[in-house]
Amino acid sequence: MNPFFAMFLLFVLTFGQTASLCAPSEYIIHVEKRECAYCLAINTTICAGFCMTRDSNGKKLLLKSALSQNVCTYKDMLYQTALIPGCPHHIVPYYSYPVAVSCKCGKCNTDYSDCVHEKVRTNYCTKPQKLCNM
């Protein structure tokens, strides 16, 4: 085997996780309240992408530390608040949402992330739409 190729292969296996394609990605959230006249389309960022995962068919033979199920999740985030237009005075018209500042490959934290990927997702408006650029 070529020594250059062997070094390259060792480098990729060692540092492959840092080359994962996990990064903040633009996303539009559609928010509406039953009592309000409009749906709000919010431009934000979420964590999305590919993370290296190791899973073996021989799970019973390996230690749990040898198995790695990493997901693309928040490293740093902040919350912003938007005003939903067309709400009556007795309704709180605010909606707070997370904005991904940076992302990492790691274990999914259910305190602030939805760790289940659903195939059918409804992210659309049923009312007239207003765009919110934050």
UniProtKB/TrEMBL annotation:
Pfam families: Cys_knot
CDD domains membership: GHB_like
Keyword terms, alphabetized: Disulfide bond, Glycoprotein, Hormone, Secreted, Signal
Major localization listed first in the record, in broad terms: secreted
Signal peptide: 1-18
Coiled coil residues, start to end: none
Cellular compartment(s): Secreted
GO term, biological process aspect, one: G protein-coupled receptor signaling pathway
GO cellular component, one term: extracellular space
One term of GO molecular function: hormone activity
Domain (Glycoprotein hormone subunit beta): residue spans on this chain: 21-125
Residues annotated as transmembrane: none
Subunit structure: Heterodimer of a common alpha chain and a unique beta chain which confers biological specificity to thyrotropin, lutropin, follitropin and gonadotropin.
Similarity remark: Belongs to the glycoprotein hormones subunit beta family.
Protein name (Swiss-Prot/TrEMBL): Thyrotropin subunit beta
Organism, as annotated: Anhinga rufa
Gene (UniProt): Tshb
